[in-house]
């Protein structure tokens, strides 16, 4: 379970989310990774929230890691970010829109950290073999691949669940991003929309088709979240959801 707020907004919210998710995952025997972006580089509008400052946000990620004894992950956007983000996080996430950025993937791989590459909305699952191979060719075989939906017209995404077994055939863990795959990008308002009511459906289907893990952005008050609130799961709904998903996982396995 990779879960957390979309962006690091404050220490208080990061700790509230980490504490709750860790508690739920401990009871359900689910491995937990805390996720929070220290900076949001891919924004619909120049007026959108980008972060509270790189150093401050990375410091909060380090504090979450120490306080709750959990691995942490964040996305990186440029080659030089890889090394200093790796000083804090355990998994470096390559954003979907940068999954073909060779030098970025190589820089992440050379840190020796796990590299989680999100499949671009514009790519077939088969094309992700070559993204993963860039990590291997850089001397690192610690790879995760994440499905996050495919472009469906200008303002919607659709999940083709054939992607999960196809990418699983490469031999790496496959994660289903249950929240970003429900985004409605490129809205005329300049703010990305979403449909969180379908998170449970996407998550159940992903487990049934062989996903090894799930990625869910969650927040105590999604309507007040500074980034991606429209597609996030309310924190209060996570325990019920994960309880159901655990039953699906046990049935499948």
What's the short story on this structure?
Helices cover 36% and strands 18% of the residues. It is an alpha/beta fold.
Describe the structure in your own words.
This protein is α/β, with parallel strands linked by helices and 253 residues long. The protein is 36% helix and 18% strand. The chain has helices at 11-28, 54-68, 79-86, 102-109, 128-137, 163-168, 199-208, 238-252, and strands spanning 2-4, 33-35, 72-75, 91-94, 114-118, 143-147, 150-151, 157-158, 174-177, 183-184, 193-194, 213-219, 233-234. Strand 10 and strand 11 (193-194) form a beta hairpin. Helix 1 (11-28) packs parallel to helix 2 and helix 4 (102-109) crosses helix 5. The chain is globular and about 40 Å long. The mean pLDDT is 93.
Key terms:
TIM Barrel, eight-stranded parallel β-barrel, two-stranded antiparallel ribbon, 8 helices
